[in-house]
């Protein structure tokens, strides 16, 4: 497995996670994961972080969905892990995503402020708005329209967005865009029957940048270039 390193110092590692690779094992699949890559290339990180049962999460401070690509932070030691984890908890980490969603969004920018809970029908899914079950957790997502596109699909209207989640709920962007009636394109979980243009061969969600403070109080911003599939779509 080849993983591009975007930033590295003695405490922090930022990688360019490819789409289609899980961050850690679910205990059932034998597919290679980001955690496997970390253990192979940074064995000293084995006990960094918080393992869940028998599943190791070496240095994993936050995670990206399997089909989401882009910037992902890892801590190289426990002190750095606790430091970064607190920044995420305090909502001081600035995350910016790019996404292609179905339909033309009317307003050029906006905020989706809707708590997220569990779906009553599918344990894999989360839900915003009516019908959500379990603990409803605050979730805030800001968006800005970058471009409105017409692609080869039915219907052909799509919107290319810059998205900034202010909270870090599981599947937050995907859940909020589904709630907003503009689901992320080619999302097999939240919009399996939705339009998927031939230009797009994967979930159209990319973690473009992450901005944070390092343990020496230096502001760091790490960016991941747009995947080729995004570039082709925007031509």
Could you walk me through the main structural features you see in this protein, from its secondary elements to its overall organization?
The protein has 235 residues and is of the alpha+beta class. It folds into 2 domains: 1-90, Pseudouridine synthase, CATH 3.30.2350; 93-210 and 225-235, Pseudouridine synthase. The chain is 14% helix and 33% strand. The longest helix is centred in the middle third of the chain and has 12 residues, at 78-89. The mean pLDDT is 93.
Indicate the topology.
Layout: E1 4-8, E2 12-17, H1 34-41, E3 69-75, H2 78-89, E4 94-102, E5 109-113, E6 116-118, E7 126-128, E8 133-137, E9 140-150, E10 157-165, H3 172-179, E11 205-213, E12 219-223, H4 228-233
Parallel strand pairs: 3-11
Antiparallel strand pairs: 1-2, 2-3, 4-10, 4-11, 5-9, 6-7, 6-8, 9-10, 11-12
What would you say about this model in short?
With 235 residues, the chain is an alpha+beta fold.
Number of strands: 12
| Poorly predicted runs of 5 or more residues | none
Oligomer: single chain
User: What is the name of the CATH class of the largest domain?
Assistant: Alpha Beta
How many domains in all? Answer: 2
Following the backbone from N to C, one meets helices and strands in this order, namely: EEHEHEEEEEEEHEEH
Strand proportion: 25-35%
* Helix proportion range: 10-25%
Mean pLDDT: 93
Quick one: overall form?
A: globular
Count of individual helical segments: 4
**CATH architecture type of the largest domain:** 2-Layer Sandwich
Largest sheet: 9 strands, mixed
Q: From the alpha carbons, calculate the radius of gyration and give it in angstroms.
A: 18 Å
CATH H-level superfamily title of the largest domain: Pseudouridine synthase
- First-last Cα distance: 30 Å
